[in-house]
Amino acid sequence: xxxxxxxxxxxxxxxxxxxxxxxxxxxxxxxxxxxxxxxxxxxxxxxxxxxxxxxxxxxxxxxxxxxxxxxxxxxxxxxxxxxxxxxxxxxxxxxxxxxxxxxxxxxxxxxxxxxxxxxxxxxxxxxxxxxxxxxxxxxxxxxxxxxxxxxxxxxxxxxxxxxxxxxxxxxxxxxxxxxxxxxxxxxxxxxxxxxxxxxxxxxxxxxxxxxxxxxxxxxxxxxxxxxxxxxxxxxxxxxxxxxxxxxxxxxxxxxxxxxxxxxxxxxxxxxxxxxxxxxxxxxxxxxxxxxxxxxxxxxxxxxxxxxxxxxxxxxxxxxxxxxxxxxxxxxxxxxxxxxxxxxxxxxxxxxxxxxxxxxxxxxxxxxxxxxxxxxxxxxxxxxxxxxxxxxxxxxxxxxxxxxxxxxxxxxxxxxxxxxxxxxxxxxxxxxxxxxxxxxxxxxxxxxxxxxxxxxxxxxxxxxxxxxxxxxxxxxxxxxxxxxxxxxxxxxxxxxxxxxxxxxxxxxxxxxxxxxxxxxxxxxxxxxxxxxxxxxxxxxxxxxxxxxxxxxxxxxxxxxxxxxxxxxxxxxxxxxxxxxxxxxxxxxxxxxxxxxxxxxxxxxxxxxxxxxxxxxxxxxxxxxxxxxxxxxxxxxxxxxxxxxxxxxxxxxxxxxxxxxxxxxxxxxxxxxxxxxxxxxx
Length: 680
Prior knowledge:
Alpha-Beta Plaits, 5-stranded antiparallel sheet, 29 helices, 10 strands
């Protein structure tokens, strides 16, 4: 039965006061737990309430906490105190509920501080819940036995197969042919193709695939990449809302519903809302959004990364102790000096670790000033003064400098350049790191790498050809021209298409359909076993499996019920739409320190419990929360946004400026369409 928002609000208000409609209202029983609450009640006429050693007293004022007491100096802040009352009252609170909320707070703080990787934080959360007796080991690990893990892993493998067979390589040429040199046409077709692809591929993978192609189109058309890259990342996020497999958030939420005894989402259940969001995003970026994005001046890579001041020349003079020694034994590395090139008899040689130095060599080095001063301790070495070096000095017919992004599933995350033995491992030299609008060049070897870091690298051309196939680093210098294997490409596209059709029509379970498709692309050698494992984002799978189990803890302890009771008691008089708006805003807020999937899995139990208390359809609230988790564009913390952060040379404020209006408009679409398509 469909209820009107008015009747829902009346029912919720009645439930808040502890009686069913049609019965006489009993006095409201409210525990007094805060001294400031005693102050408020002390200002009221009628029955006074105080706190004493005899325990908690009661008040019969049916308006508290919504009507401020007379002459209350804190009246403007009473709504905030009401929120605090939800969490500080002892009524209904158990130590188990308190422990769950405390661990949630600790997880959020750890996510923000980034002291540990998200997978380690998630596993620590599970250990804490089991040790405290909140979850049994079976409950804790049940999230990893969920079919959502199979679906996500299969989607990663299928995405990798499309990349390795060269199917995705032609998209850059399509954008160039359709977009030409018009910025608006480029924006239109970049966002259309990206959102369509992202509906069936992981958002982050889609962004990474299109990034080199879009950069190449920008160079040809002389359009600033900063005008196109944020729209690219936003389009991948919007496209992911169109289908169940478009984003890990949708899959994770569907798995939670299944465990909660509800019907899981179908493959195309989100399509109407997703399409509306895509149209909104494209129109917004073409007519409004791109005007809010920067247009930085053209600069060389050494200027963009601000490393010119670190580039110097050192001369190995006659009788130098460096002569006859390989670079690795020169002692320069221990002093914080990286030898980039050796100029010998008018020829530039890329400095390998085993390159032997000779008298008369001129070394181009990357080092801070304080490290250069230490060179004076070495006999037979001269520092050239007033030397201005740039891109041209680091590039020859065999040597080049390029940018590469640290991918979300990269094994390099958390390690430093020194710990990785980066130069020997990859055969190239790291010159600087660009992170969140800031260039990091000093003490480069000791900086732990993070997702979205852009490394400025120098090395032999053939080394970059090898590096371009590495899943840990995504080279941006040029498009990845993977040879198109026609037959294998057809197999990969057919496998994905068949999985979508068979799973979408529910002929077989969706998890089985995508697992079978993943096996097909491996068995037909579209992708090798090793490549398939490399494309799977194991950190994400651990995160989703662990947070699914955390949702079980919220239900099992009554934490979801406790939170929903507080939400209903506070927001019910305002009506159903403010409650829905509140859940959307809460979910979006949690996606900032947490991943989208984690935020959805935390809010879903509370949203479903709240819907049940209000007497409305829980599925509507579940869909609202799931989609809200994917429609946050306010900060660059989403992996798709982190990937374009460096190449676009953005600042944090650029995402806020262009993303906040789009987020608000997307929430408006949710509040309009969700109650229409999934009646309350």
